[in-house]
Amino acid sequence: MMFQFLFGVDGSREKWADAIRTSLEGKLDDDCVVAMARLGNRYQVAVASESGSRLKILEVISDSIIEALGFYCKYEYLSDNLKLPLDKVSYNILLHALTQFDRSSEEAVLKSCVQINNGMALDGVYRFRLGLLKERWREIINLTKENAIYLTDSETFYELIKFLFSSIEARVENIVLSKKNGDYIITDEKTRKKLFVSTDINEIIYSLIDYAPLSIAVNKSFDNELAVDLITKIFGMKQNEASVTCLNQ
């Protein structure tokens, strides 16, 4: 009997659907088909399999949806409600660090309050099912605003970023940074899989924060000293933070 599962999100949140689609493609067996399409003003993702284990597929779908909601719902809520007198790059560094802060426990809360159902609307979950988490996020916003004046000092700002990283669980252990044909590339050192590619160095910085690796190796092709200095400031050299090593190869 063929297994099918559908979920959707409104057109303004394409990244949500695409992130889950990519996650599912990387985790599900080859006998599963994952497809994404725009239908009117919504995006829909479909998963289908003729021979895979229904329970196993549902578990992978659930984990991928919860992980994406944990990031995108919090990121959207903070970006909509947290306004600070910071330059764009610093603001986005802080926003990503705050979004990743305490993600593990927040994903546990998500699992308890979000039921993964065929045909579910992810934007509906964001609007109506996250009251407890939004209350926690409001506390983060209020605390950050109360200390906004200190964040304009560069040294204090990066001390806060390092503190936030003390609670972030690494999503990839070791990362290699390189550059090829104008593209900056983040690669998983263990699997050699490209995790993120961009011509925008700032997007690379934000993605590094999201992956929160234990170590970052910088290939000599990654010829951006300002970015390396910034990465060093963000991650520092403490035991539970990333170390930055230059690879001459």
Report mean pLDDT, rounded to a whole number: 91
Which regions contain 5 or more consecutive residues with pLDDT less than 50?
Answer: 237-241
Q: What letter string, H or E per element, gives the SSE order?
A: EHEEHHHEHHHHEEEHEHE
Report the helical percentage. Answer: 40-55%
Largest sheet: 5 strands, mixed
Task: Indicate the overall shape.
Answer: globular
Strand percentage, roughly? 15-25%
Radius of gyration: 19 Å
Structural class: alpha/beta
Strand order of the largest sheet: 7-6-5-8-9
Q: If helices are DSSP runs of H or I spanning 4 or more residues, what is the number of helices?
A: 10
Question: Cα distance, first to last residue?
Answer: 52 Å
Count of DSSP E strands? 9
Q: Brief description of this entry?
A:
The protein is α/β, with parallel strands linked by helices and 249 residues long. 51% of the residues lie in helices and 22% in strands.
Spell out the key features of this protein.
249 residues; alpha/beta; 51% helix; 10 helices; 4-stranded mixed β-sheet; single chain
Characterization of this structure:
By secondary structure, the protein is α/β, with parallel strands linked by helices. It is built from ten helices and nine strands. It has helices at 14-27, 54-81, 88-100, 103-113, 122-128, 131-146, 148-151, 154-165, 201-211, 225-235, and strands at 3-10, 32-39, 42-49, 120-121, 174-180, 183-188, 194-198, 215-219, 243-247. The strands form two sheets. It has a five-stranded mixed sheet with strand order 7-6-5-8-9, with helices on one face. Helix 2 packs across helix 4 (103-113), helix 3 (88-100) runs parallel beside helix 9 and helix 9 (201-211) runs parallel beside helix 10 (225-235).
